[in-house]
Structures are given as structure tokens and as C-alpha cells.
Amino acid sequence: MITLENEHIKASFLPKGAELKSLIKKDSGQQYMWNADPDYWGKTSPVLFPIVGALKNNTYNYKDSEYELSRHGFARDKEFQIQQLGNQEVLFTLKSDEQTLKNYPFEFNLGLRYRLNEDILSCSYEVHNPGASNLLFSIGGHPAFAVPLSKGEDYNDYELEFNADQVLTYYKINDNLIDHKTENITLLNRKLRLQHNLFYDDALVFKSLKSNRISLKGGQNKPGIHFSFEGFPYFGIWSAKDADFVCLEPWCGIADGIDHDQDLDKKEGIITLLPGGSWHRTWKVQPF
């Protein structure tokens, strides 16, 4: 376990998947991350790369060849290298190799950089194309925050507050793929009350959020988080059935649509990075 710490917060990570496992506010000792109970969902914050969500039939076509990738890609199950490490910053890296090239024929360097800045933890995705051909990829976050955060509380004591949305339009998921059908949720004072049944039909998937900050709140003087994200065109909110967490998922990429032709070049949300090019995005969490 790799740990970063300052006077405000303490965060711990595993090199496998470069996964955030623990986030503690030091003055209260409050733990903010889901405990990864395998009876519900055994992860806490996997990175989604080189795809976000599922492919139709778990396959895609590229340059007249067919390849197979499981849901959310392979990076979350790979052992990352520790490239840099200090008291308040760590850089985990993963590079393409003979194994990844079999089902993902692209050279890549992927970095996950975690940094503490006072009471804020940031996670930056850094992608570099070291090859001679274009790199096609998607990437996203999947951090799971514990709900409730305080003893004696219930899941529906908590709400998500959006900084710029009054109505949420989400896409339905059909057999892990994105349907054309949408539904609306009208917010009360930009707040969505958490309920387990929100996620009985899978994640809420958004393509048009106006917000770039979502706050998880449990009431006056109760612990919560501010979750900030810029430059992520898609967003998911999810929990396993009746589990005590909520995932706030900023995405650059999305699952295949139900009528997608499986051509990777035409996949919605796919990013094309030129040879020698670099790309990055950052999300931040501030516990309170």
C-alpha cells in the first residue's frame, strides 16, 4: 500500500490498478471510501481504460481485424509501476506490452498521478502516444464513496447536490449498452436524494451535464465530499444493488450504443491521439 499524507488528509493506494483505496480526513478520522465488500462490489476506484463501459458482444473492429475487450478494459487489473513518489504525490504508470497488444493493437503510456493540495486529493489521467500510429482510447474514473458516512444514518439521508443542473437527463442501459431512451429527473434545489432503487436498472448515464461539481451531503454538520471534474463529456452515477456506496464517475468515453456497428474509429467518445501526443484530465475530491 502506498500512502500520501499531509496535515489535512491521508490517502492510500494499491499499485494493482493504481487504485485509490482509502481517503481519511485526519482531524475526524472519517473514512470516505467504500470498503470493497466483495458480496456487493470488490473495488473502490478502478481506472477505466482503454474503454469505458461495454462493447457490443465485447468486441470491436479495427483495420479489418476483430478484437475482444471486457467491460471497462484491462488497466484496472494490471500492476502499475511507481514512477514517482513523494509525501504528497505519486505517479503510477502502465505501458503497452506484448500481452496488451494482442487485443488492443496500440502503443500507449498511461499515468495516474495522485496529488494532495491541502484538503483536496486530485487524480490526473496522463496518456502519451509513444508509437508511430494514432492511439485510440477512452478513459474514466469510478471512485466509490461510502454512504452513509455516519453511524445511525440511512442511505436515503444523503443527497447529491449539482452546482449547475436543475433537471437531469439520463440514458437507459440495455444489456450493458446505451439505449436511445432517456428519462428525466427534476431536482429540488439542484439536489438528488439518494435511494437504492435509483440503481436497480444499472447506472445513471449522462451526456449533457452542466455541472462540474457534485457534492455528497448528509445534512448540517455531517461529513461529505465535494467532487470536481472538468473536461469530461460523460458522467455516470452508480451503486451495486442495495450497497452502501455511490460511485461518481467522470468519463471521457462511453459504452457502445445498442446499434453501434462496432467500428472503433466510429465509436462515440473515442479519443484519437496523434503519434508523440499527450493528453490529460483531472478530477478532485475534497472531504469535509
Automatic annotation (TrEMBL):
Transmembrane portions of the chain: none
Keyword Calcium among UniProt keywords: yes
Pfam families in UniProt: Aldose_epim
Keywords: Calcium
UniProt-listed InterPro entries: Aldose_1/G6P_1-epimerase, Gal_mutarotase_sf_dom, GH-type_carb-bd, LacX
Co-factor requirement: Ca(2+)
Keyword set includes Calcium: yes
Top-rank taxon: Bacteria
GO annotation terms (biological process): carbohydrate metabolic process
GO MF annotations, alphabetized: carbohydrate binding; isomerase activity
Subunit structure: Monomer.
Name of protein: Galactose mutarotase-like enzyme
Organism expressing this protein natively: Pedobacter nutrimenti
